[in-house]
Amino acid sequence: FSDPLAMTLEERKSHLGMRKVWGDLIAADYEQQKTSPHLFPGKARKQWYQRRVREDMSRVLSKNLFDFKLTGVMDDEVKAMEAQFEEMMKSSPEAKAMADRIKELELKHDEDSNKEYIKLLRAATEPFMKSIAGNEALKYGREQTTLTSLKVPTSHDGEFDVLVEVYTPKDLENETKRAAYVYAHGGGAVSLSVEDYRPLIQCFAVDMGVVVFNVDYRLAPETKCPNNIKDFYEAIKFVSKNAESLGIDPAKIVISGESGGGYITLGAMVLLAENNETDLVKLAIPSIPMVDDYCFSDPLAMTVEERKVHMSMRKIWGDLIAADYEEQKTSPYLFPGKASEELLEKFPPTIIMEAEFDMFITEASRLANRLRRAGRLLEFFVNPGATHVSNFIPGLKGNKVWIDTLKTIAKEYIHS
């Protein structure tokens, strides 16, 4: 009963037939039973689960490097971290009051409520990211890279220069054919900045042996879809066009982003496919990405993590990112997971990185299935026992697995 645009071909072919079977034949009273696990067993509570190639573009060949076994059990250190956070919330009246107010505002859709919501959301996320960025374990990234910046001129939403920070490993400074890693930071596409992510991504530059171009794309709601993804798209084209002067090998340009930045990356992949510019990019790595409108479906069938955030994600997509939700809700610019089979077949070779207990695991999994069918998926990596944020916290087991995986990707798919 969900939007068929985000379905696989097989699901889409039979979705109307299945609606008929469930609604008119199996159910005694569909409206009364549609939330019941007796009709839909997948809506049982406490249940954990995951839910034709173009002639001129060959199917990518996976090396099948990542086959981590998922056990359905969160890492103990992650559980302890979440328990500590819950305790902090209980002991801090100010933090609890902010969290409660954010929940209240998720249900309001007027302009004043939206302004208050984004102000509080940014106030909540920025200190958390700064706490990660300030970890002493990340100082090697700063020490072993050189920081410069450039500006990319754009005109798709007024005349605006997009800031791009550049992190160059010091041992690569004299090379002229370096791999580029064009990156979109996280924050739901509504918060955070390149400065917040700088310490973390400087380490990526060192660990992967790449020059990182960290793109400070404009945020929603001040900048609406599709102009935020166009900021990133223009940065990709800038790096490609100016590869020689930047000391970049034009055959080794990688694009990546995590969470909201994963959405920005996927949206740029849609634009590249539409404009037949896929050859500008060697590899795309959307990580723990926001993909589609799964949050608007019935929360009873969601994982615990998905259910916890589905109302906030409805707010972010519908009130903050979209220029006009009703008009854009079928567009792959807003929801890249709704890209047609024809567009998916023109995507760059793709590695999707996920976490077993991520809040976007279902939508990322079904996009991975569609990309595999389209012949564009190189790898679908799922970090066992990890959550949305634990991948990036130095010292945690999941962070080591994540970094080791990035190193392997760099060796096997970027530099080879």
What does this structure look like?
This protein is α/β, with parallel strands linked by helices and 416 residues long. It has an eight-stranded mixed beta sheet with strand order 1-2-4-3-5-6-7-8, sandwiched between helices. Strand 7, helix 14 and strand 8 form a beta-alpha-beta unit. About 3% of the residues have low confidence. The protein is globular, with a radius of gyration of 21 Å. Helix 4 crosses helix 5, helix 5 packs across helix 7 and helix 8 crosses helix 10. The protein is built from 15 helices and eight strands.
Helix content: 40-55%
- Overall structural class, as computed from helix and strand content, comes to alpha/beta
Any idea what the radius of gyration is? 21 Å
Strand percentage: 15-25%
How many strands, which pairing sense, and closed or not: the largest β-sheet? 8 strands, mixed
- Overall pLDDT confidence: 94
The largest beta-sheet arranges its strands as 1-2-4-3-5-6-7-8
Shape: globular
The poorly predicted ranges are: 46-56
Distance between the termini: 44 Å
Secondary-structure element sequence? HHHHHHEEEHEHHEHEHHHEHEH
Q: List how many beta strands DSSP finds.
A: 8
Count the helices. How many?
15
Oligomer: single chain
Offer a few descriptive terms:
globular, alpha/beta, 416 residues, 15 helices
Quick overview of this protein structure:
The protein has 416 residues and is of the alpha/beta class.
